[in-house]
Amino acid sequence: MGNKVKSIGLIGLGMVAGVAASFQFSAIAQKTTGTPLPLEELRQLSDVFGLIKTDYVENVDDKKLLTEAISGMVASLDPHSVYLDKKAFREMRETVAGKFVGVGVEVALEDGYIKVVSPIEDTPAFKAGVKAGDVITRIDGTLIKGMSLDESVKKMRGEPRSKVSITISRKDEDKPLVFNMLREEIRVQSVKAKIIEPGYAWVRISQFQEPTVEDMAKKITALYQQDPNIKGLVLDLRNDPGGVVPGAIGVSAAFLPKDSVIVSTNGQLQSSKETFYGRKEFYAPAAKNDPLAKLPAALKDVPMVVLVNGGSASASEIVAGALQDYKRATVIGQQTFGKGSVQTLRQLTADTAVKLTTARYYTPQNRSIQALGIKPDLLVDETAEGDGLNRLRVREADLQKHLGNDKDPQADAVKRDVPDEEQALAALAKKTKPVEFGSKDDFQLEQALNHFKGLPVKLSK
């Protein structure tokens, strides 16, 4: 199988095959790339397979049994490694391209349940009122405790306009909440931009996709045409769960000097030991023209703020880390999610693949973000009253089997200042409404503007 495996790219957006009860061990060993196989354990796997086929109460399909074995093996590694069957692989490619059919939630596995990291803006889930921190307990009435993350995501996806029911447990509600939605093709507009007041621009990236760099360049160019004298730009990465690494490189490169180091990676493979620069070959290798070539020259020097929170993860942490290391921007908000690992899609067949964690990534100053995140230069709560729903977010360090931080072994020991009592959390969620980013009621954005203007910034208590 090894010579059929093909790497198809780095992913930043969260399962062994056989044909009979008797494995051809020597043949398998000859096909490996120099790594000896644990033959005794493989024999045990073969024995268990045979026992199930002969002794289980009813017949089990061979393909299902072996696929589940693959799924379990990969999923046991870390929260972000997963086996992708035909449907899941197709959906992954659609997501990277900026579209998929579903309800529009970013999720993570916690204690056997699926927790909402963030609803994607302007999707059925977002419109229905699903919130970050919600725990999904049932999908179409089926209890999902113990279900793999991949399997639960597949159940939420389907055909356009098909119905799906999601049952949610929310800390501030006594009874489960049931959301009945119609699946839609989610075309995530990953970039939004506007002049929020004369002289100040706001650019929001909700997810890093293949079109993100080009879309951002077009929107920023339009902003400068609208107001050529922009004196402050806010790059809003709050609740951005990540995505493709080239998108993060391109966004960073737009604001940094030519050929700057953006991010580096390190893993077992030689191909995982790489440094990425702010060059077209790294952020738009397939494009005929450089999408950043015609950006206004003033963009390299305009004062910047990057807004982040606990939902800012992976590729968004690459951008925040790079701009912070070069002191190109002031990072404002709350500590980020802490996903400092890179996943690579390894294609197995024409229709299946493994999304495997292959490297850790590091900021230009060689900082590891894994299980730690980016610490803002100015800690600012979500609202004037406190950090709101951001305090309820699950983060990388909270996930079971997460990778450790090789630069800071004590990263997992960093405790968030959150109440221990369930009642306190419930009361907090009950009185707090989700923030509409970019609105006049956006407290963190208001503090970013104060920073530009030299006015006092209200820091976290």
TrEMBL record:
GO terms for biological process: proteolysis; signal transduction. PROSITE patterns: PDZ. GO terms for cellular component: outer membrane-bounded periplasmic space. Keywords: Hydrolase, Protease, Serine protease. Residues 89-157 form the PDZ domain. One of its GO terms (molecular function) is serine-type peptidase activity. Transmembrane segments: none annotated. The keyword Protein transport does not apply. SMART domains: PDZ (SM00228), TSPc (SM00245). The keyword Hydrolase applies. PANTHER family: CARBOXY-TERMINAL PROCESSING PROTEASE CTPA, TAIL-SPECIFIC PROTEASE. Belongs to the peptidase S41A family. This is PDZ domain-containing protein. It comes from Duganella flavida.
